[in-house]
Amino acid sequence: MIRFYFHPTPNPAKIALFLEETGLEYELVPVDTRKGEQHDPAFLAINPNGKVPAIVDTDGPGGKPARVFDSNAILLYLAEKTGRFLGDAEDRPDLLSWLFFIATGVGPFSGQAVHFQHHAPDRLEYAVNRYRREIARHYRVLDLHLAGRDYLVGGGYTIVDMAAWGWIRMASRVLAVQDDPLGPFPNLRRWFLTVDARPAAARARQVGQGHDFKTEIDEAARRALFPSNYPADDPADDPAGA
């Protein structure tokens, strides 16, 4: 059984897609990050970094429970556990390279683009320009790579496609472009529509729909989501907003 700690944001979406693709049995554990539940001691014991997603595999190596955090580490762990979506053996160098390209580039730069365009209290044009242009550069790298190929690694669908899907599906918010944000990247757009049309992707988009997650970004939510913006010695600095 996989215990899946989830909030409806891009990184957990990757894991939802993998679980729905494989049919692995899992228990969904909602973590409402706008309420600060990622800072609860019980969750920090699973992910000391206080981020979602995380999993606990009750049947880990040697039959012992195993925790795994960071979305890309989880994808690699689950793929190795199941022996699925890893590509062929000769694809391993490419798989690791592109997986880490997404982990260190597409993911964090997308997150910063969203933050400075939609959440920063003051619009800093330098930051907005830097992160939006840099993520556009990442998109161009992917677009060029996808010319003449259906998937990101080898000849088939792998965890790299799942990792990229989690963030590319948010392109309109990342680039702050509502009308066909992937239009300038035709190969990336074609690839995204292929992955997004998979039945498992439709199921992944529904994961967590029955839970009443907080939607408001108020002061308590900002403290929960961006605790490093508040002085550690501020007596009002309660990440959970309690």
TrEMBL record:
Belongs to the GST superfamily. Residues 1-86 form the GST N-terminal domain. InterPro entries: Glutathione-S-Trfase_C-like, Glutathione-S-Trfase_C_sf, Glutathione_S-Trfase, Glutathione_S-Trfase_N, GST_C, Thioredoxin-like_sf. It holds the Pfam family GST_N. Residues 88-217 form the GST C-terminal domain. It comes from the Bacteria. This is Glutathione S-transferase N-terminal domain-containing protein. PANTHER family: DISULFIDE-BOND OXIDOREDUCTASE YFCG, GLUTATHIONE S-TRANSFERASE-RELATED. The lineage of its organism: Bacteria, Pseudomonadati, Pseudomonadota, Alphaproteobacteria, Acetobacterales. It comes from Nguyenibacter vanlangensis. Coiled coil: none annotated. Gene3D superfamilies: 1.20.1050.10, Glutaredoxin. SUPFAM superfamilies: GST C-terminal domain-like, Thioredoxin-like.
